[in-house]
Amino acid sequence: MKLSTLLVISLCLFASYNSYAAEKTVIRIGVQASGTVDWELSAFQENPQTDFQLEIQHLANAEAGKIALQSGAVDMIVSDWIWVSSLRATGSDFTFYPYSDTSGALVVAENSPIHSIKDLNGKRLGIAGGELDKNWLLLQALAQQEQLDLNASVEKVFGAPPLINEQIKQNRVDAALTYWHFAARLEAQGYRQIIDGRGILKGLGIQEAVPSLGYVFKESWANSHKQALNDFFKASKQAKNQLCTSDAAWQKIIPLTKVDDLPTQSKLRQRYCEGNIEHWGKQEQQAAGRIYAILHTLSNKQLTGNADALQPGTFWSAE
């Protein structure tokens, strides 16, 4: 075969490959640097069969992500379904697909006299977030079942998760209600978990595992890119499974955790993997509606907005 003929064939194949690559849907995803979503995206395997191409934009915090999504700077972020429902109540078409059901936890020192929620009476409680933190609201609901008004009976200290961790380490608070990865760090240092988000929900009569966080994106955008989005969700699930079953895969993302000691790395991995979504269907979505009703009442509509019920379309379906 002549050299000129080979050149033409090579150019045609190159053009064909570029054309195929150009046809892939670009998914612009906004993530917090070193967050667990970043772990998964780093574990994604290159697969020429997928219908998407990722464009990752690192963001400073959760609020920056919400702004980026609403302004159209990104196509997707990870957030919660309460926020999605509140947006849909105002006419927006954002929707939610589950990512993790790992939740926060109530943690105390190993030698603490606190062994139950009732023992919080008269104690100093560090709370990650603010008055509208979902873990705090739901913990109050559970305490009410035991005739304990936490709002009135504990000394509340609100702050960012790192600050709350420091407060309990310095004995400035007696217990810490904080996000899961900060609770895991404390557990690895010998602190004791009293109850986590799942335990709180079970105490409130909600047995289903309801994801706390998920991918959030516009429904109109999703309906135009269903194949790419489904491919992305499959890749995300595979990456999480790989991080939880392969030590080699986990070792690769350890630098992203910014943790040097093995006990903390192990506890982070354990809690992260406990958040794997096993079931997501009608029952879980109905349970989310019951959680919404509790939060709507306890927050006096401040967290959920005025809508009395979870808005239709809050949860995305490819069907």
List keywords for this structure.
five-stranded mixed β-sheet, alpha/beta, D-Maltodextrin-Binding Protein, domain 2, three-stranded antiparallel β-sheet, disordered N terminus, 319 residues, 14 helices, 10 strands
Protein described:
The protein has helices spanning 3-23, 36-43, 62-71, 81-88, 134-144, 150-153, 161-169, 180-188, 197-203, 219-224, 226-245, 247-257, 262-274, 282-298; strands at residues 25-32, 52-59, 77-79, 94-100, 105-108, 124-128, 155-159, 175-178, 192-196, 213-218. Helix 2 (36-43) crosses helix 12 and helix 11 crosses helix 12 (247-257). The radius of gyration is 22 Å and the shape is globular. The longest helix has 21 residues, at 3-23. The chain is of the alpha/beta class. It is built from 14 helices and 10 strands. It has 2 domains: 3-101 and 210-298, Periplasmic binding protein-like II (D-Maltodextrin-Binding Protein, domain 2, 3-Layer(aba) Sandwich); 105-203, D-Maltodextrin-Binding Protein, domain 2 (3-Layer(aba) Sandwich), CATH 3.40.190.270. Mean pLDDT is 90; it is low at 1-21. Pfam families: NMT1 (PF09084). Keywords: Signal. This is ABC transporter substrate-binding protein.
